């Protein structure tokens, strides 16, 4: 009802430019980037999640240095690097098709949008599958989250990151669904931009997880 | 002006040691600076009232003229002057901090273990007691502050600032009493149900008296003198008491509750909950939950006559 | 003056009709559950927050009755511990933040000349989560298992070894849940303040109350994750045997303290800075001149917010950290007083340069300044490490924290009730009863809390449920308890005043005080769409310096934008507020309510270890999120 009333009274809703009431003044009604509230919403959401990860990693280093020279403690082996580096390559490479998807829709190329999102989804899902199917079971053979603080930290930090990847995958499915419904064009695709930002954020966080959990113990 | 209404508070303003005096001195500096600040602010508030209007005239009275002294006033009175005062106070406080707790290699090392809700006190010569810490007058005593369970905080205001007992580390606090006396304190970190009843008493004795006391305290309990006390000892060793408490000299070697070897030398039960008398001790043993609800000590399985015997034994343990 | 927007000479009937048609939310359950009107939501935050204020007040009166004399028997230790814990949790999380957000919600869009907040549905969601989290937390009383380890909940006492019951799980889950509301609200404030200001409201024309809400919101975004993380780690330790805080397995009890206070110290500024902003909003109106030292006040607000992140260790001066660490924190803690002091002297300068009218709003502000300064000087005392180590965890802290919090939050809130209440309800409150309330609160507060400084100096620790009679603490405790009841009566007077004046108070009109900022441009209460035209602002005190605004409608020649083409508002640039875009705002939606309901179910499921239900609740929440974003009509940015 509300929408119908509004539709009756609105003349320029569906257009790219709208009237403000000052004669001759027209302003964009479709946009991406800092003009869009939703963009800022995603920026600040990323800010608060980044703070969460920063504190988690700070907690890791705090406990590491409280624990003295042997780290990992209790005979746990220093983490192997091969699998994490493979996982890193897979996750980071997923940002390329995602970027291309966004670049594509900015010029109206819906096909590139769909392909890029799908490829990014597959790579991200692979990363998560390796984490849950290979990396974690391997580690669980040696220690678990209840073994000691190191174990708690390892599984919580990688788990938090994995949860954010999962959220990203759901976000990707949503964006792909909307893409297939024809919701996006060159002037209207804020969701794609927000998804891209979020996905790159998850990649950047992984850099810190990699450095903290996998690389730092070797130093 | 600051005397308490009746009673004798363990007061930061009643220092009985050099360190406590330094802190009290710091307090007075902070206090007088604060009085001046509050007075200045109040003076300005009152000054502002001198131009007050009785009524709000909605239409005609907005004064938009700039205030030429405004910015300067805000910067000088609001930032520069306070900044200088704060910097000076900071420096002074650091000086006091550096002065506290001067290390002393000859210091007597005493371990004070925090428990819920009592204090275990251990001396280097093997003496173990609870809740009351005797120290020699005028000599540095270094307290080690481990905890057996949660975080506690050791605070005897007249003698020293407080320090927390943190799991996994052992903090240290040094204490020197100027003169003989009993100094009261209390646990100062919320530790559960009976945090309110975790009293500390530090008693400073002249050196000779302290040495005698310390030697005696390390000795095992005297043998019971009366038949009833003998019976009490046997009951103590066989009943659940021995599962939690130690009395050196008999077979009771439990370590969950306070060491009772010299219980009768203490003034209170339950870390200050009730004075130590035969009657109170009997009540406490019968049902400690009455006096200190939530303690780990359960009501006794002994009959009242058996309790009497145990009390007779314990009251002999000077 | 009437209480609805009257079409003025320069506006056409059709403009107002069009705005009404597009912005009005039709009555009924749908709009009650789904409203996205920032004014309705702001009022809900206010009422709910004040209800929790009364709850927290009752808890404090029970505490003060138990402590009125030595060895009293009204409350046992378990009840006492639950009461003091819930008192702190309630006052900080369920009263102060919601009411201050409520005023922000109501007045920030009005003051910046916008038609709503940037994210109206997020706004609604924030309120429903607050209500749900409050109900969740208070349900703990029904089962006698309220949190009982204080509002800062130290481990190991709050671990499952020493607190096996669900009390602490209530705490952790409840605060994680609440954090969603606070964080969403904060993001909303930030984007609103940066992007929705009326054209011409460049950065140095932003009202100081708005700056205060921005500073608060920035702190929330960066501080709340610390509390959320700490609570999550605690739940992992408690429920799944993780070892973050377990010293025997490589963890550390102090990690909790660090994480908590990294949140906890900014939290007190989150509560204080909006209060400062309220003072800066009220003083100019009631001394009839613009604020003195605007730039310094703004820098002060933002500096407090920033420096406040660097001092958290001063809550830990007694845990045994090295003196050199403590020294740096002590310096920062001394210095953080300066930006607050700048603001105090700016207010004093404004008061001295102006002509004060001693009505209730200004009285409460004067009371705030006096009380807050006392709290501030004792705060500086705590920055001095040896003195802190002497009175840490004693009643000296209780006195200090109440002086700063009641000073900087409660008194400004009560000032705002009398100053802005008429804008929200359309009716003036009774002035005589306002003064009665003020004096009862002012005298009662000081009687309640000043003696507590002495109690702390005399060795009385905090959080004790009783004390002995020979310690010299009796008289001060009795005085404190009497003061608490007097304060409570004073509060009650205002509550009754509010309710009586809603129906019987004289009509307020648009601008009963001739205020300087744009909320007085709207009617009382404002129309659904706030302003017939979104104004172009050319001054810091637009209502005083732009005579064309006083008639309620600014003509297009003067820069007024009716923006009647749909459910729209204006997006402007961050620094110089140039119009950038037309933004289509969402209509009422049930999804915020539904999502908060699924999250409530999730909270109970996690609390009670019903994991299948928890998974189902997560799935339902994801579904609700999809429903939220599913496009309806053409009102979406996609």
Structure at a glance:
The complex is a heterotrimer of chains A (about 220), B (about 325) and C (about 650). Chain B is of the alpha+beta class and about 325 residues long. Chain B contains eight helices and twelve strands.
What would you say this structure looks like, in words?
- The complex is a heterotrimer of chains A (219), B (318) and C (638).
- Chain A has a two-stranded antiparallel sheet with strand order 1-2.
- The longest helix of chain A has 33 residues, at 110-142.
- Chain A is built from six helices and two strands; from the N terminus they run αββααααα.
- Chain A is mainly alpha-helical.
- By secondary structure, chain B is of the alpha+beta class.
- Helices cover 36% and strands 17% of the residues of chain B.
- Chain B has helices spanning 18-49, 70-99, 207-218, 227-238, 241-244, 278-286, 288-291, 304-314, and strands at residues 108-115, 118-122, 128-130, 132-136, 141-145, 152-154, 163-165, 171-175, 181-186, 199-205, 268-269, 274-275.
- The two termini of chain B are 42 Å apart.
- In chain C, strand 1 and strand 2 form a beta hairpin.
- In chain C, helix 4 (77-111) crosses helix 8.
- Chain C starts with 12 loop residues before the first helix and ends in a 9-residue tail after the last helix.
- Chains in contact: A-C, B-C.
Give the topology, please:
The complex is a heterotrimer of chains A (219), B (318) and C (638).
Chain A: H1 2-9, E1 17-19, E2 26-28, H2 37-66, H3 82-106, H4 110-142, H5 149-180, H6 190-215
Helix pairs in contact in A: 2-5, 2-6, 3-4, 3-6, 4-5, 5-6
Chain B: H1 18-49, H2 70-99, E1 108-115, E2 118-122, E3 128-130, E4 132-136, E5 141-145, E6 152-154, E7 163-165, E8 171-175, E9 181-186, E10 199-205, H3 207-218, H4 227-238, H5 241-244, E11 268-269, E12 274-275, H6 278-286, H7 288-291, H8 304-314
Parallel strand pairs in B: 1-5, 4-10
Antiparallel strand pairs in B: 1-2, 2-3, 5-8, 6-7, 9-10, 11-12
Helix pairs in contact in B: 1-2, 4-8, 6-8
Chain C: H1 13-23, H2 29-34, H3 38-66, H4 77-111, H5 120-142, H6 167-195, H7 208-240, H8 253-287, H9 294-307, H10 323-335, H11 337-353, H12 360-383, H13 385-391, H14 395-425, H15 431-457, H16 474-504, H17 542-545, E1 568-572, E2 579-584, H18 591-607, H19 611-629
Antiparallel strand pairs in C: 1-2
Helix pairs in contact in C: 3-4, 3-5, 3-16, 4-5, 4-6, 4-8, 4-14, 5-6, 5-18, 6-7, 6-18, 7-8, 7-9, 8-11, 8-12, 8-14, 9-11, 12-14, 12-15, 14-15, 15-16, 18-19
